[in-house]
Design brief:
2% helix; 4-stranded mixed sheet; elongated; mainly beta; 190 residues; 15 strands; 4-stranded antiparallel sheet; Secre_tail; single chain
Length: 190
Protein backbone atom coordinates (compact mmCIF):
# COMPACT_ATOMS: atom_id res chain seq x y z
CA UNK A 1 0.00 0.00 0.00
CA UNK A 2 1.14 3.49 -0.76
CA UNK A 3 -0.17 6.48 1.08
CA UNK A 4 -0.03 9.56 -1.12
CA UNK A 5 -0.89 13.14 -0.42
CA UNK A 6 0.44 16.65 -0.24
CA UNK A 7 1.37 19.21 2.37
CA UNK A 8 2.60 22.78 2.11
CA UNK A 9 3.02 25.96 4.10
CA UNK A 10 1.53 28.92 2.27
CA UNK A 11 3.68 31.32 4.31
CA UNK A 12 6.86 29.60 3.07
CA UNK A 13 5.98 28.00 -0.27
CA UNK A 14 9.61 27.39 -1.26
CA UNK A 15 10.26 25.25 1.84
CA UNK A 16 9.39 21.58 2.11
CA UNK A 17 7.19 20.07 4.82
CA UNK A 18 7.97 16.70 6.39
CA UNK A 19 5.16 14.31 7.30
CA UNK A 20 4.92 11.24 9.53
CA UNK A 21 2.80 8.10 9.23
CA UNK A 22 1.58 7.20 12.73
CA UNK A 23 -0.47 4.50 14.39
CA UNK A 24 -1.61 5.79 17.77
CA UNK A 25 1.44 7.67 19.02
CA UNK A 26 3.97 5.45 17.23
CA UNK A 27 5.77 6.93 14.24
CA UNK A 28 5.93 4.25 11.52
CA UNK A 29 7.51 6.20 8.64
CA UNK A 30 8.44 9.71 7.52
CA UNK A 31 8.52 11.43 4.18
CA UNK A 32 9.35 14.85 2.77
CA UNK A 33 6.57 16.48 0.76
CA UNK A 34 8.76 17.55 -2.18
CA UNK A 35 7.41 15.63 -5.20
CA UNK A 36 6.13 17.80 -8.04
CA UNK A 37 2.37 17.52 -8.64
CA UNK A 38 0.86 19.08 -11.75
CA UNK A 39 -2.44 19.72 -9.93
CA UNK A 40 -0.57 21.93 -7.41
CA UNK A 41 1.64 23.90 -9.81
CA UNK A 42 -0.42 27.06 -9.33
CA UNK A 43 0.50 27.00 -5.63
CA UNK A 44 4.12 28.15 -5.36
CA UNK A 45 6.49 25.51 -6.74
CA UNK A 46 4.02 22.61 -6.91
CA UNK A 47 6.63 20.43 -5.16
CA UNK A 48 4.38 19.42 -2.27
CA UNK A 49 3.53 15.76 -2.92
CA UNK A 50 4.64 12.78 -0.87
CA UNK A 51 4.48 9.00 -1.07
CA UNK A 52 4.83 6.74 1.96
CA UNK A 53 5.21 3.02 1.29
CA UNK A 54 3.49 1.06 4.05
CA UNK A 55 6.09 -0.29 6.46
CA UNK A 56 6.33 -4.06 6.97
CA UNK A 57 4.74 -3.80 10.43
CA UNK A 58 1.43 -3.01 8.69
CA UNK A 59 1.65 -5.98 6.31
CA UNK A 60 0.19 -8.62 8.60
CA UNK A 61 -3.33 -8.99 7.22
CA UNK A 62 -4.82 -7.03 10.15
CA UNK A 63 -6.60 -3.68 9.89
CA UNK A 64 -4.57 -0.70 11.16
CA UNK A 65 -5.88 2.81 11.82
CA UNK A 66 -3.12 5.17 10.70
CA UNK A 67 -2.83 8.92 10.32
CA UNK A 68 -0.49 11.28 8.55
CA UNK A 69 0.64 14.38 10.42
CA UNK A 70 3.06 17.24 9.99
CA UNK A 71 6.34 16.00 11.47
CA UNK A 72 6.94 17.07 15.05
CA UNK A 73 3.39 18.38 15.56
CA UNK A 74 -0.04 16.98 16.29
CA UNK A 75 -1.49 18.49 13.09
CA UNK A 76 -3.22 15.68 11.19
CA UNK A 77 -3.70 15.85 7.44
CA UNK A 78 -7.19 15.84 6.01
CA UNK A 79 -8.47 12.30 5.52
CA UNK A 80 -6.75 11.03 8.66
CA UNK A 81 -7.17 8.57 10.20
CA UNK A 82 -7.56 5.88 7.56
CA UNK A 83 -7.82 2.13 7.94
CA UNK A 84 -5.36 0.04 5.94
CA UNK A 85 -5.39 -3.73 5.72
CA UNK A 86 -2.32 -5.09 3.95
CA UNK A 87 -1.60 -8.77 3.53
CA UNK A 88 2.03 -9.83 3.62
CA UNK A 89 1.74 -11.04 0.03
CA UNK A 90 -0.14 -8.01 -1.32
CA UNK A 91 1.06 -6.64 -4.63
CA UNK A 92 1.47 -2.89 -4.71
CA UNK A 93 -0.72 -2.53 -7.79
CA UNK A 94 -3.67 -4.31 -6.20
CA UNK A 95 -3.95 -1.98 -3.21
CA UNK A 96 -5.84 1.28 -3.40
CA UNK A 97 -4.10 4.48 -2.41
CA UNK A 98 -5.43 7.17 -0.13
CA UNK A 99 -5.02 10.87 -0.66
CA UNK A 100 -4.71 12.87 2.57
CA UNK A 101 -3.80 16.52 2.17
CA UNK A 102 -3.23 19.62 4.22
CA UNK A 103 -2.91 23.32 3.66
CA UNK A 104 -1.23 24.69 6.77
CA UNK A 105 -2.67 28.15 6.16
CA UNK A 106 -6.19 26.73 6.47
CA UNK A 107 -5.35 24.55 9.49
CA UNK A 108 -3.57 27.29 11.41
CA UNK A 109 -4.74 30.84 11.62
CA UNK A 110 -4.25 33.91 13.77
CA UNK A 111 -6.33 37.08 13.77
CA UNK A 112 -5.98 40.07 16.11
CA UNK A 113 -9.03 42.14 17.01
CA UNK A 114 -9.16 45.07 17.31
CA UNK A 115 -6.01 46.18 15.57
CA UNK A 116 -4.91 48.88 16.36
CA UNK A 117 -5.81 48.65 20.06
CA UNK A 118 -4.85 50.09 23.45
CA UNK A 119 -3.24 46.88 24.74
CA UNK A 120 -6.50 45.07 25.35
CA UNK A 121 -7.48 42.75 22.49
CA UNK A 122 -8.24 39.18 21.54
CA UNK A 123 -6.40 36.70 19.40
CA UNK A 124 -8.63 34.48 17.31
CA UNK A 125 -6.87 31.17 16.74
CA UNK A 126 -7.73 28.17 14.62
CA UNK A 127 -5.80 25.12 15.83
CA UNK A 128 -6.29 21.40 15.37
CA UNK A 129 -7.65 19.54 18.37
CA UNK A 130 -5.05 19.00 21.13
CA UNK A 131 -2.36 20.91 19.19
CA UNK A 132 0.01 22.63 21.60
CA UNK A 133 1.23 26.04 20.51
CA UNK A 134 2.94 29.10 21.94
CA UNK A 135 1.41 32.53 21.61
CA UNK A 136 4.13 35.17 22.00
CA UNK A 137 4.05 38.96 21.80
CA UNK A 138 7.24 40.94 21.22
CA UNK A 139 7.80 44.66 20.95
CA UNK A 140 9.44 46.11 17.84
CA UNK A 141 12.88 45.69 19.47
CA UNK A 142 12.23 41.95 19.72
CA UNK A 143 11.78 41.86 23.51
CA UNK A 144 9.17 39.35 24.66
CA UNK A 145 6.39 41.17 26.54
CA UNK A 146 3.84 38.33 26.84
CA UNK A 147 3.84 34.56 26.36
CA UNK A 148 1.39 31.73 26.96
CA UNK A 149 1.00 28.12 25.84
CA UNK A 150 -2.34 27.36 24.19
CA UNK A 151 -3.95 24.03 23.32
CA UNK A 152 -6.10 23.70 20.21
CA UNK A 153 -9.78 22.93 20.53
CA UNK A 154 -10.26 21.74 16.95
CA UNK A 155 -11.65 24.99 15.61
CA UNK A 156 -11.88 28.70 16.25
CA UNK A 157 -10.97 29.80 19.77
CA UNK A 158 -10.38 33.14 21.47
CA UNK A 159 -7.55 34.29 23.71
CA UNK A 160 -8.30 37.54 25.58
CA UNK A 161 -5.12 39.51 26.25
CA UNK A 162 -4.57 42.65 28.32
CA UNK A 163 -1.01 43.91 28.02
CA UNK A 164 0.18 46.04 30.91
CA UNK A 165 2.72 47.89 28.83
CA UNK A 166 3.60 51.54 28.97
CA UNK A 167 4.83 52.07 25.45
CA UNK A 168 2.76 52.49 22.36
CA UNK A 169 4.02 51.16 19.08
CA UNK A 170 4.25 48.15 16.85
CA UNK A 171 4.25 44.67 18.36
CA UNK A 172 4.57 41.27 16.69
CA UNK A 173 2.15 38.54 17.73
CA UNK A 174 3.51 35.08 16.93
CA UNK A 175 1.83 31.69 17.00
CA UNK A 176 4.44 28.91 17.08
CA UNK A 177 3.53 25.28 16.42
CA UNK A 178 6.41 22.88 16.04
CA UNK A 179 8.51 24.36 13.26
CA UNK A 180 5.64 26.45 11.88
CA UNK A 181 5.28 30.14 12.74
CA UNK A 182 2.51 32.60 11.95
CA UNK A 183 3.24 36.24 12.78
CA UNK A 184 0.97 39.28 12.68
CA UNK A 185 1.78 42.92 13.24
CA UNK A 186 -0.23 44.73 15.91
CA UNK A 187 -0.30 48.44 16.74
CA UNK A 188 -0.77 49.54 20.35
CA UNK A 189 -2.03 53.11 20.81
CA UNK A 190 -1.87 54.91 24.16
Amino acid sequence: TEIKGWAWNQNYPSKTVSVELIEGSTVLATSVASIFRQDLDTMGTGNYGFVIVSPSILRNGQPHSVSVRIKGTSILLGGSPIVVNCSSSARMSSIATVEPQIDLEKSLSLTISPNPNTGSFKCILNLSNHTKAKLIIRNIAGTEVWKQEVVGLGGEQYQEINLNIESAGIHIVTLEIGGQIISKRMVVLK
